[in-house]
């Protein structure tokens, strides 16, 4: 019995090309994912230090502004928001929200934003601050 | 037997050309992707290296600056005049009056532990602001020196009580730029 074998090669070639295509796609996908991961690592570190700097800036403002200090230490529901645009360089901004939980104690939420080619990368960090009972204005900072 | 071979067809020119074309295309594609992968992997390792170098320095100095009772260096107020050298009292050695100096040496950030003294009493550590009877400032002695970070392109400190730190790292022409601020709240 003679089986007609015409078309077998074409089938094999199609199977091989499809397999290669799938391998190459997976390889490319993995490269792109790795690249995104490295970029995200970089942006994460950059925005973390920006957000940390934002909290430090807010603490500086509270310590050096009588009204803010009075609000922080004498009002149980005092809150304040600090914002800065173009911090250190263009497209970098931060916002710090401070909400008192008690007299001289507050929750701090800092969000930094880095704008890169119309995409915003955000990082949020939370902390707690407590006014010390010294004569000098001093604040203890604890990260959550 | 001869008839059997005669009946089997070879490949047509079209089939051979198609095969060679497809193979060349696949090889070219594979080569390009392999190049892309290797470039991406190199970039990634450079970014990771830069970040590690930056993080080690920033984490160390921000922790120390937050707690230091005294920043010796008078820093410029604006970023245009930033300097790459800062000296402050080591918060971990308050009783020993030791001072930390961070500065850029080539492409490295170096930390020195410094002690100030008067030649007449070299065993007694003093503050850098103290003066002897003839109004001379104390001498300084480096007790320890360590490299904190490598591949640093620029380092800048500026600001008064809120100290801004501007750090640029460079490896294989890949620049990583990090900034932060520290409120030296115990600074007298």
Please provide a written account of the structure.
The complex is a heterodimer of chains A (144) and B (188). Helices cover 46% and strands 33% of the residues of chain A. Chain A is α+β, with helices and mostly antiparallel strands and 144 residues long. Chain A has one domain (8-143). A five-stranded antiparallel sheet of chain A has the order 1-2-3-4-5, covered by helices on one side. In chain A, a hairpin with a 2-residue loop joins strand 2 (92-102) and strand 3. In chain A, helix 1 crosses helix 2 (66-74). The longest helix of chain A has 57 residues, at 8-64. By secondary structure, chain B is α+β, with helices and mostly antiparallel strands. Chain B is 32% helix and 36% strand. The model of chain B has no long low-confidence stretch (mean pLDDT 89). Chain B has one domain (46-183). Chain A binds chain B through residues 9, 13, 17, 20, 24, 27-28, 31, 34-35, 37-39, 41-42, 45-46, 49-50, 52-54, 56-57, 59-60, 63-64, 87-89, 92, 138-139, 141, and chain B through 15, 19, 22, 26, 29-30, 33, 36-37, 40-41, 43-44, 47-48, 51, 54-55, 58, 62, 66, 79, 161-162, 164, 166, 176-183, 185-186.
Q: Helical region count of chain A?
A: 2
Total tally of structural domains of chain A: 1
Strand order of the largest sheet of chain A: 1-2-3-4-5
The general outline of chain A is rod-shaped
Q: Whole-number average pLDDT of chain B?
A: 89
Strand and helix order of chain A:
HHEEEEE
Number of helices of chain B: 2
Record the SSE blueprint.
The complex is a heterodimer of chains A (144) and B (188).
Chain A: H1 8-64, H2 66-74, E1 79-84, E2 92-102, E3 105-116, E4 119-131, E5 139-143
Antiparallel strand pairs in A: 1-2, 2-3, 3-4, 4-5
Helix pairs in contact in A: 1-2
Chain B: H1 2-7, H2 13-67, E1 85-89, E2 99-105, E3 108-118, E4 121-126, E5 139-149, E6 152-158, E7 162-171, E8 174-183
Antiparallel strand pairs in B: 1-2, 2-3, 3-4, 3-5, 6-7, 7-8
TL;DR of this structure?
The complex is a heterodimer of chains A (about 140) and B (about 190). Chain A has about 140 residues and is α+β, with helices and mostly antiparallel strands. Helix content of chain A is about 45%, strand content about 35%.
């Amino acid at each position: 019995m003679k089986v007609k074998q015409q078309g077998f090669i074409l089938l094999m070639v199609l199977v091989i090309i499809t397999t290669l295509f799938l391998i190459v796609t997976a390889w490319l996908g993995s490269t792109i994912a790795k690249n995104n991961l490295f970029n995200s690592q970089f942006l994460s570190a950059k925005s973390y230090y920006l957000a940390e700097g934002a909290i430090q800036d807010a603490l500086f403002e509270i310590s050096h502004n009588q009204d803010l200090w009075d609000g922080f230490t004498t009002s149980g529901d005092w809150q304040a928001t600090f914002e800065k645009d173009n911090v250190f360089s263009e497209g970098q901004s931060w916002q710090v929200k401070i909400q008192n939980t008690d007299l001289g104690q507050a929750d701090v939420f800092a969000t930094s934003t880095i704008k890169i080619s119309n995409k915003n990368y955000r990082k949020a960090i939370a902390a707690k601050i407590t006014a010390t009972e010294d004569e000098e204005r001093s604040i203890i900072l604890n990260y959550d | 037997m001869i008839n059997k071979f005669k009946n089997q067809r070879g490949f047509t020119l079209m089939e051979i050309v198609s095969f060679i074309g497809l193979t060349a295309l696949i090889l070219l594609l594979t080569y390009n992707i392999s190049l892309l992968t290797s470039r991406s992997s190199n970039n990634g390792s450079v970014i990771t290296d830069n970040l590690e170098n930056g993080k080690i320095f920033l984490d160390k100095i921000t922790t120390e600056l937050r707690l230091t009772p005294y920043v010796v260096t008078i820093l410029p107020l604006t970023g245009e005049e930033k300097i790459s050298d800062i000296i402050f009292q080591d918060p971990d050695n308050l009783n020993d009056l030791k001072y930390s100096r961070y500065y850029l040496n080539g492409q490295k950030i170096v930390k020195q532990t410094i002690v100030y003294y008067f030649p007449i009493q070299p065993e007694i550590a003093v503050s850098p602001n103290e003066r002897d009877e003839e109004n001379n400032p104390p001498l300084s002695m480096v007790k320890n020196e360590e490299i904190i970070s490598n591949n640093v392109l620029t380092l800048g400190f500026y600001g008064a009580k809120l100290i801004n730190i501007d750090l640029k790292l460079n490896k294989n022409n890949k620049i990583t730029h990090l900034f932060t601020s520290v409120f030296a709240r115990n600074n007298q």
